[in-house]
UniProtKB/TrEMBL annotation:
Xref: SUPFAM superfamilies: UDP-Glycosyltransferase/glycogen phosphorylase (SSF53756)
Keywords: Transferase
Classification via PANTHER family: GLYCOSYLTRANSFERASE
Keyword Transferase in annotation: yes
One Pfam family per UniProt: Glyco_trans_1_4
Stretches assigned to coiled coil: none
InterPro entries attached to this UniProt entry: Glyco_trans_4-like_N
Keyword hit for RNA-binding: no
Molecular-function GO term, any one: glycosyltransferase activity
Glycosyltransferase subfamily 4-like N-terminal domain ranges (all copies): 15-174
Signal sequence, renumbered to the chain: none
Species this protein is from: Runella defluvii
Protein name per its UniProtKB record: Glycosyltransferase involved in cell wall biosynthesis
Amino acid sequence: MKKTVLFIITKSETGGAQKFVSEQIQALSSTGKWQCLLATNKKGWLTETVQPFVNESDLLVNEKLERLYSFYYLLVLVKFILRVNPDLIIANSANAGVYGRIAGLLTHTKVIYVSHGWSSIYNGGKLKSFFNFSERILSYISSSILCISETDRLKAIEIIKIPASKLQVIPNSILPPKVEHLNYKADVVTVCRLSSPKRVDLLIQAMFHLPEYTLDIIGDGPLFLELQSLATTNQSTNIRFVGEKPGFADFNQYKVFCLISDSEGMPMSAIEAMSCGLPLILSDVGGCNELIFNNGALVRNSLTDITQAIKNTLQNHAYLSSASKQLFDSKFNLNITLKDYESFYLKLLSS
């Protein structure tokens, strides 16, 4: 008999956590041993992506999920869980993590919370202590917490004070794409939301010193116009703002992937780029150090470091590209790591 798993995620828009959920649903469904269900805020990129694998009756869409304190949504979710009777709930993102774990407690359903980088640590601001305390309390009603990097596991223990016995690490993994290298659109690509904590401003300034190379910026956000203005003040012709591309997957049209940020968990976009054989240039934050092994560069968020890394990486592109693809196949290929996820889920269900 198939095991039933309900994925809960706050937003259906494109993003790293959504990519994780989408890939999990596709991979688990393809084994024939799992039936996947989904609860999210509204129809969007994620619901469209998993439509072939999730029946309409197994989909809960309600915008109240976007509110952190909605007793109404909690009742809707509990009612849905009681109807579909999942063996396991896998909650992703902050709001979904709260609702999923409380609903699991009320319905006696085991719940895994997936931490896609601890937002309570990285983005908590003045309320960081309160959010860390909340995460610690919620850990006690979690069956387990899945960390996407060893760095996040250590921070959960040392900073949030979550018991180590509650934590499991499986690095982010995706299904490998069918890669066909085309004519390159640009030398460097970055894919991210144009907002804090991303530091696209530093990447743009680094490109001022590298007029021989080109950069495409994929993404939108509140800093779009400000960053566009920054690029035009230098009259740069080597920087192009492409805008948002939901479900962007054309990494094979670029030579190098670069993500400069003040905080990260384990960026899914970097793993997607790696799967296409792109060398990586990443800020030395969060779990990014687990994505670099002779396949690119970790940098401090300084113009000197970023500029030099771009130059060195492009000059050694062939070697670093091969190393990037090898690293992906050995550690981040979901066709290989799926057995680790299944083993984790089944062990939890049998405990």
